[in-house]
Amino acid sequence: MLRIHFTSEDIGRVRVAAGPVPAWEMLLSLHVLRGRADHGVFEPWRAGALGCLDASSRPLLALAPPKGYSPDFLTPCDTDVESGVEAVRSTPRARLRKDITLLAGPGAAAGGLRPLADGDVGALGRLGEAMRTYHDRALAPVWDRLHTVISAERAARAADLLDGGVERLLSRLHPLVRWQAPVLSVAYPVRRDLRLGGRGLLLVPSYFCWARPIALRDAELEPVLVYPANRGLERLVEPAGDSRGDGLARLLGATRAAVLEEIATTGGVTGTDVARRLRISPASASEHATVLRHTGLITSHRTANTVLHMPTPLGRAVLDRRTLTPRLR
To answer: Which Gene3D superfamilies match (predicted)?
Structure first.
């Protein structure tokens, strides 16, 4: 069990990552790719991505075993690939040596990982290039799909925050996470206590995090909790080849689909206006908006006595008929 201890100051410093974090998706997708478990929904991707690994991948694979510890320095929380790669290449020598020793034992400095543990510029350059190549070959082909799922997850968490504050956000984060103030308990293979001490907590929803939430090993680093994004949100985007109107009507119901389209078309509208334009009752419009908000398709913002509904990226993706079917190069 991982127990994350909050202070009142930490409650105000809970954040959700601004988008997918490439370094975490690299590491966790490698766990999926190299593990023996049947990962179900990932199998089509896995079958194609296995061919992406070659000799150029070795510097990255050496740091990402199928299970167990991987170095904390390998997963900076930058939300673009190049910034993440540069953060890894700029890792201080003391951090490199500490993390690599945890990974491979004291003998690592005398083995194949010694140049990296010593901060050798060439070794760090090869690692950075391996990260870029793996992302381009294995992740870029499914990045739109991944981004849509993470955007939907962020929208759902934003709705929780607006509806019930940080406590609701934490209590609905994941089935393996339990919030009982001031402690967030996470099902974990080892017993650990992480005291935030006013630093706050960065929540990172991940597409390839499939089993349970994950935290960094070193409690002195910026506190991060990576957790599986709600994969059920993928089903909210209709299959390729389906007509938008028919697909939405079957998925949401004709009236609810019309409410979503009305909200997206105007870019921001009140429930009263939706009811008037669609000739439905205000109560019905409010009920449909509530369901759309809870599934991450819209957000609602109150100003004085007015509630304004706006589409989320997932809501727009549904209406734009964006497919989630990946094609590997």
So the answer is: Winged helix-like DNA-binding domain superfamily/Winged helix DNA-binding domain
